[in-house]
Fold each of these.
Amino acid sequence: MQKSDCIIGVEHVSKFFGDKAVLNDVNLSVRKGEFVTILGPSGCGKTTLLRLIAGFQTASEGVITIAGKEITQTPPHKRPVNTVFQKYALFPHLNVFNNIAFGLKLKKLPAAVIEKKVKQALKMVGMTDYEYRDVDSLSGGQQQRVAIARAIVNEPEVLLLDEPLAALDLKMRKDMQMELKEMHKSLGITFIYVTHDQEEALTLSDTIVVMSEGKIQQIGTPIDIYNEPINSFVADFIGESNILNGLMIKDKLVSFAGHEFECVDEGFGQQVPVDVVLRPEDIYIFEPSEAAMLTGTVTSSIFKGVHYEMMVQTPEGYEFMVQDYHCFDAGQEVGLLVKPFDIHVMKKERICNTFEGKMVDATHVEFLGCTFECREVPGIEPETPVQVEVDFARVILEDNEEDGRLTGEVKFILYKGNHYHLTVFTDWDEDIFVDTNDVWDDGDRVGITIAPENIRIVQSTKKEGSGK
Amino acid sequence: MMTKWMAKGYLWLLLALLYSPILIIMIFSFTEAKVLGNWTGFSTKLYSSLFTGGVQRSLVSALWNTFAIAMIAATVSTLLGSIAAIGIFNLRSRTRQVMNFANAIPMMNADIITGVSLFLLFVSFGVSQGFTTVVLAHITFCTPYVVLSVMPRLKKMNQNVYETALDLGATPFQALRKVILPEIRPGMISGFILAFTLSIDDFAVTIFTIGNEGLETLSTFIYADARKGGLTPELRPLSTIIFVTVLVLLIVINKRAEKSKS
């Protein structure tokens, strides 16, 4: 990519509300004419990023450039971008024509030019002859078309779209997606599109930016993101997937679900814990036979229109989601097979909880803002900073907040075939990761306890390894 | 059947009690008798003498003062109140609650307290009391009502509209004028009418701020007139006219409120 090609540059941008970081050191470069989608769950900072580019908010740190010019502090009316909002935001006191002409009139263009441009824009969005209609009399889809026309009539360098189709019904949304894609092609300008709908992102974009918790997780083409998710969050968020704990035995050989499988991944090292992703449509399902790599029993089978979605339980205790055109009924014995290139191996972000703490006395250690009892560690002076390690499976969650040493909120749940991997945001503002067989819901308040024998104290020699 | 009849009867009794004083004034405005309560036959003479200068000049000037004060006070408080409402609306929710509360206090406060405190304020600053102080006082108690009638319009507005205007190239001032103002205009008009009627019928605050230079408004004139012994007969048609005017204004406000709801 050439530098001159870059229309929008976001460099080391952070945004804080109070001391909460909504965006954390975000870097993004958008090429001219690209259709970029910023995808993420609600509260991941995607809308904030868009609002920083539009200029409705200013970055706390970092630099934003448009066409090579720095605009970090430029007010919105001086930026060469236009925005389409989720709730249309049409001016209710103006008719369709005057809504679209709003920007042109501010530029003091001659009336004849304005009329011509407005008509062109209306034609572009398929709303010819609606000029003198009252905006309140239009349907949601029509209002959004007017909002798009009002933005593109100004011929911006970049069109920003903030979940523009979220308020429309499914059928209308699908139609509008196609129209937006057509529009992008014929206008040739850059689109930056914010959505939480992964299907929409896969359908529309040249490039997808997956965000979570104020950070960019992965940037890539829809095919890259789908086929080669960089971590378990992306794998879980984009499409359906089976995510399992695995062990990379050596290059091209990985073990998971109690069996060893040939794969195509290399360079992870030997005997390294990894995450394994299998897409449900990549698993072959058939009557039990010699070819089966795994056997199991179908526990449920649901017709989804094009395919059947079946849950298969293996004797080793793992559950797989399988999609296939053929139906296998619940209770049936089946064989499963995965081809080597359909096994996606991802580096684990962490293999156990690691916290910065300090010793209180020989049998007590302080971390996450609480004092925990631990096994006697000889030879460490009180007040010595240490690293504390706790295995995911050794963290105990309690229904009653009062029963725990500290409290937190379940914020992310990942099903790993035979257990759940939870991210719990503690009230000390740090995450703790938990493996459990119990079912919890997003947003559940929990108490957290850790038994003394499960707290490992590692004398911190250097800073290395912190946060890993 | 019986309970229904009684409920109806109660309602009519209540309405009769509420409106009989006004009805009496209205009925007796159409007779010539000097003393209220004597019916000397139907006549519109009091109306014609009201408009042809048959009354004291001081009543005419009081009427004129009242109108001028109401006009200025309503205009200024509409401006101040609308700007304040926009400001309060854009505060963080915590500060906004505090400001809304602060805005509600003057409305709940007894008029007499407002009057006395303004009187003390003007005296302690050595401001000579007269037309200006009355106008200032009226602006003071009218503004919160304007804030209150503009606020719902702001809340109803699509919150992205202002940003959209900026996005399309409007300066913040242009966005205010071309987008926010048309959106809140109905609230401003309602607020203006409300302020106008409040100003016209105020007595308690006016009497404390009007000074002793001989300035009279309608309410202070009637008060003085009544104390001199007996009301000037022309006050009967005048009251009728004011009542009907205020009634019409109130109907207009309510109709507007209904329309904006639908």
Amino acid sequence: MKELKFNLGGRTITAELAAKVDKKALYGYAKKIVEKDGKQLARGLLCPDGKLLRRDEISTACVDPEGTPVEEIVLEIDGKPVQVQPSSFDRENSLAEVPLKALVGFNVSDVYPLANVSLSPGLYRTTFTYRKALQPRAAFVLVKEGEAYLLAGRMKKTAFVGLNVAYEFFDAEAQEAEEPEDLDFSMV
Amino acid sequence: MDAFHIEHQGKSAKVSLRSLPAEEEELNVTEKTSVGQVTALKVTTGVNAALDPASLKPDTLIGSDPELDFAAAGQILEPESLSTAYYDPGDSSRTPVSNFRQLDLVFDAQGQEKERRQHLTRKANICDIYPVKIGKRIPISQALTQFVFRQSCQIVHEDGVTRDFLFAIASELHEKQEMAVLGAGPKGNLPLVVRDKGSPHRGFLYGEIGAGADKDKYKLLVLLSDQELKRPAMASPTPA
């Protein structure tokens, strides 16, 4: 487990980050295969000249207008050079207690269990990036009785709707009986 | 925007399901050298596909590069000109195979195969002839700490009648400080599939009524979850 450091109101708090928990680890998964006459087939990419390439025969190359870049690539945001931010393991991450409802509208992409956290139960806002990144992601530390999790993801904005709907607020383009006692999450 | 067919207390309505803007805008990142902008191209790697790398001896690899076919390397490929094809891995000529079957191998959490089935392609069910039903209620604090919400969308009205309908639902949830479980299908107990070929998610309805200047306004969110917030029975260490 890797150690994370947080700063809550000037106090340094440490926690150990365990391996990411995903749906696959909890419920299993489904893998699509293609077969003919009981024999599993491999997937490839067919070129216009009729040649069939295996996945490992194709790669991505980064090139500048003169070909493969020989000098260091500079990252820019809106035309200005940017520095890559250190990983969350290499810095002290600010932590602020927030009401539990702050989780409403937060789209979680990664869930990490935390161990040895000396925080009282509640929700704390922070940022997180496992590796170096341009911008750490929004994250929450959720502490429950006996367990704690770090939830990393993206916060969405919501709006109250009156008689007239402010359609411009929402994304113009779409993105992508019997009541069981327990919800079945094994929807693989 | 998607249409959302929802039923509450015996009445149903077709309303809009809107995706939400991000709190922080996506960074407009470009990669540059002094010559200009760097772009990514698909190229051939020059791997010698006629050889099985596992069959090569260390001495062979040290002495020469049989695993590489330099003549085949560096060819730029146009992604739109490529199409997926399947072939028999034992066929050295790699002839595309037709009339194949697509199957799903279903594995349990321990990685053991438990089922083989015809490949399942799900259809969207949020605006079906069967409306999405509002079911069991859960205290907000319990729902937020028990499930991992992957996606949030907001339900908005289409007209005055649907506005009153949605306002009443939001108001009820707000007063009781509860979230409601949503279910699709004839019995209202199936997970929600927002898009064709999409993944199934358990749906939860969150309602809030504004205060002050927003007191006549409502907020009704559909929160989608495909995971409970818990640790696996036996966690296996995997990199992030």
